[in-house]
Amino acid sequence: MTDTTDEVLLVETVAALATLHEHWLEDAGHAVTRPASTSHIADITDTGAAVAICDRSILEAVTDTATAPTTRHTQSPPRLILCINRLCDPDVVDLPFDDYVEKPVRRPVLLDTVDRVLARDTYADVVHRFASTVNRLALVIDHEHSTPTGSSEPAAALAADLRELAPAVTDGAHALTATDIDRLFAPGTAATIAHNPADAVDP
């Protein structure tokens, strides 16, 4: 068990899953809360939690009519971990998240993702943006490997963002976690960043 008081906001519509994930997180030393309502983006962003774990369907619902949490908050917004289905459409990258876990969520993956996202609090802002973009790109590449007919346009756009951010990240690159680095240098991701999106989606 880790010695931490970092608060984790758990936003899950399936009560049994919420209870299970809450047990895992509390057993690892995290303080867990659940929102009274998920009808507005402020219910996620203005809680004071360090991390929010949110089902994609909920995040889509609250962002349909509200500004993204990275731009609308009264205090420091939580790092957002998105829960997604294994085969999701690439439009998921339009949602404001920092990292993701795939359903069914396994205990070690959930706890490692929370720890990894919390570690980014030590990142400079540009390094955090770089890490978040790396994870978004990894998600799109993984989707395109699973469905080769998918479009690589989202991947190309994210790769362009990484190329733009890269020069400013050099001094802070040592702060990246092992998973961020693995995803950055995965063959598909590296090929996309190097302007070869066709290589990235080659099954």
What does this structure look like?
A five-stranded parallel beta sheet has the order 2-1-3-4-5. By secondary structure, it is of the alpha/beta class. It folds into two domains: 7-122, Rossmann fold (3-Layer(aba) Sandwich), CATH 3.40.50; 125-200, no CATH class. The longest helix is centred in the C-terminal third of the chain and has 22 residues, at 125-146. It contains nine helices and five strands; from the N terminus they run βαβαβαββαααααα. Helix 5 runs antiparallel to helix 6.
Radius of gyration, whole Å: 17 Å
Helix content: 40-55%
Task: Give the CATH H-level superfamily of the largest domain.
Answer: Response regulator
State the strand order across the main sheet.
2-1-3-4-5
Quote the CATH topology of the largest domain: Rossmann fold
Number of strands: 5
Shape category: globular
**How many helix segments?**
9
Structural class: alpha/beta
Total tally of structural domains: 2
- Provide the CATH top-level class of the largest domain: Alpha Beta
Distance between the termini: 40 Å
Largest sheet: 5 strands, parallel
Low-confidence stretches: 65-75, 196-203
Beta-strand content bin: 5-15%
SSE string? EHEHEHEEHHHHHH
> Would you identify the CATH architecture of the largest domain?
3-Layer(aba) Sandwich
